[in-house]
Structures are given as C-alpha cells and as structure tokens.
Amino acid sequence: MIDMQNENAINLLTEMLGIYTPSLQEAPLSEYLAKRMKNELGYDNVRIDEANNVIGEIGSGTPIILLSGHMDTVPGQQPVKIIKETIHGRGACDAKSSLAAMLIAGSDLKNESNIGKVVVAAVSDEEGNGLGTRTLIDSGVTADYAIFGEPSGIDNVTIGYKGRLGFTITCGAPSLHASAPWVAENAIESIYEVWDAIKSFTLENTGSNRYSSVTASLTGIHGGSSHNTTPEKCKATVDMRIPPQKSADWIAKEVEKIVHKFQSDTNFSKVKLKVDDVTEPFETDKKSILVRAIIRGVLQVRKKRPLLLRKTGTGDMNLLGHQLGIPVVTYGPGDPHLSHTRNEFIEIDEYLSSIDVYKATAMNLAKIHNYS
C-alpha cells in the first residue's frame, strides 16, 4: 500500500518524465516545476533564470545547503509507465528521480525548525555543456554545502570525480594523387603521429589505478574526400580525464608542448590545437561535515553504511566544488548503468528512500554545522 505522501511523490516524478526535455529544451519543465514549487510544495523566492534553471528556497539562516539536480536528458523519448515496483521513462534514472526526490525532501523540511536554508535548483544542460550550473554559479548562488543529484545508487555516495580536458587537433597538408605518397605529408597519418605522442604522455602519467591515472580517448576523426587522393585536412577530437593528483590546466599546457613540437617541424603537416573544455578534478574530503552528515543519513534510512565512490567521469559537482569552494557530493537513486539506455527505470522503493536520505542529511548537517 502506498500512502498519500508517497503517491504524491510518485505522481510528481511521472509527470516530470512525461515532459520531454533534451538538453536546452527544458523550458516546459521549468514552468511546470516553478508552478508546483510555488503553489503546492511551499517554496519561497521561486524564480526561473535565463538558462531556464528553476530555483526555490526553504527556511532561512545557516547552514545553507544546495540541492541541485538536472532537468535535461539525452535525446530519445521513452513511454512513461509503472510496471510492478518500477517507474520507466527517459530520465527515470538519469536523473529526474534525483531531482524529484530533492524537491519533495525540501518541501517536507519546511515544517522542521533549525534546519537553516535549503536551496533546491533544477538546472539545465547537464548532459550538454553545463550551461545551467555555470549560469547558477555566475548568478552568485551561495551555499555552505551542496549535493548534486545523479544516480549513484541508494547505498553509495560519490565523493570524487576526475577532471576533463577536451580538445580538437587539426592537421593540414597539400592534397595530392595517392600514387605519390612520398611527395608530401598525409594529414590523417600526421594526426596519428600527434595522437601517439599524446598516448605516450598518458602512459607516463599512469597511476596505481584507473582513478589516479591520466587517460585519453580519441572520440572522433574525420579526413579525406576521395579514395585516390591524399587528404588535405584531418580533424580529431580527444577527451582526456585527469585525476585529483593532477591539474587539468597543467595537463593542457603539457598537451600544448607536445603539439608545439610538431608545429616547430617545418617538414610536418600544419598542426592546430583548439582546447574546448578544461574542467578541474574534484574530490571532497571524506572527513568533511557533509560526508559525515550523508553517511549518517544513509545509515538512518537504510540501516547500512554507504560506500564512498571515486569515479573516472566528470560532473557538475566539479564546477560547484571549485567555483563555490565548498564540500560537494553526488548522490541519488538508481543504477548508473541504466543511464542513457533504451530502458531507463527506477525502483520505486529506492526513489522514496532517497527522499528520506536527503531530508536526514539536511537535518544532520544543521546539527553538526551548528555544534562544530
């Protein structure tokens, strides 16, 4: 049997799933959430900003805890349906369930005293270039602690993400008949020479495990126009992930040095480097007040101690942590392996439990913060 409170939480999530929100198309959900937050959930100072983020507040004073989850999903609609004890639909796992749980948790906390201020932000474009979180930061949002909602699994808390360096390499050379490959450099082959040098650099910066290692992935390559003509141009995109022991800015400078060596060789193809993204790695101290509070929250709700995870990906937690200079963790219901799949779903029990974990964590934070 599902009581009225839980039924309302389930209805909120299913209605959110029914609004299709690929990145940068979140406006309909923004308007829907703003109305719900004002009229039914009891939030104060509800507003929609220029990035279609929706922000609302519960309580006042300190500490200030930011609960932030994203509205957007990867492209591809899926039917919304409840099957036995699961809710299905695009975003059910990544990550509308986390956002819905945060919204309900914040609303439930309005009747609690001495919790400080809870700011809930529904942000846009997390699956894209992070416009929502960047706009939220630029707006001057302040907080003492933050939780970003992503599917970590109900019994796991993510305390660390690697950083990211994304860049594009372009090589250019004269286009010639393929029967005389000795006349000039081949732009595609030149790309692979640069790529080999970058791969060698990552091997020199391999740590004791994947999390502590610098890695690089060749994510795209395009060149050539004819089967019997050497390519005039070749372009490759590269994604590098950087552990907390390194700086993304330092890695970017090292890549520039590698490319410069090829640029200095007059016999080599013309090489250009364009850096598209530099995101610093981020890890929250496992002894921080925030980590202590959420561990206690999971223990209270789930009766077991959560695992603390360090992931090889990169998230909005990196931006929040560095720009605000505060402890941040990532937590939310759902199996992360279901993200972006053709059959996303969330266990109803896990979704409802996450609401209680968010609430317990906020109350624990207030107690520890005010007495530490």
Question: What would a concise description of this structure say?
Answer:
This protein is an alpha/beta fold. It has helices spanning about 5-15, 25-40, 95-110, 130-140, 185-205, 250-265, 290-300, 315-325, 350-370, and strands at about 45-50, 55-60, 65-70, 80-85, 85-90, 115-125, 145-150, 155-160, 165-170, 215-225, 235-240, 270-280, 280-285, 305-310, 330, 345. The protein is built from nine helices and 16 strands.
- CATH 4th-level superfamily of the largest domain: Zn peptidases
Provide the domain count. Answer: 2
Mean pLDDT figure: 95
What percentage of the residues does DSSP assign to strands (E)?
A: 25-35%
Q: What is the gyration radius calculated from CA atoms?
A: 24 Å
- Provide the low-confidence segments as ranges: none
Strand order of the largest sheet: 1-2-6-3-7-15
Output the number of helix runs.
9
Find the count of extended strands (DSSP E, 2+ residues): 16
| Strand and helix order | HHEEEEEHEHEEEHEEHEEHEHEEH
| CATH class identity of the largest domain | Alpha Beta
Oligomer: single chain
Give helix % range. 25-40%
Look up the CATH topology of the largest domain.
Aminopeptidase
Q: Which class best fits the helix and strand makeup?
A: alpha/beta
Largest sheet: 6 strands, mixed
Report how far the terminal alpha carbons are from each other. 41 Å
CATH architecture annotation name of the largest domain: 3-Layer(aba) Sandwich
Overall geometry: elongated
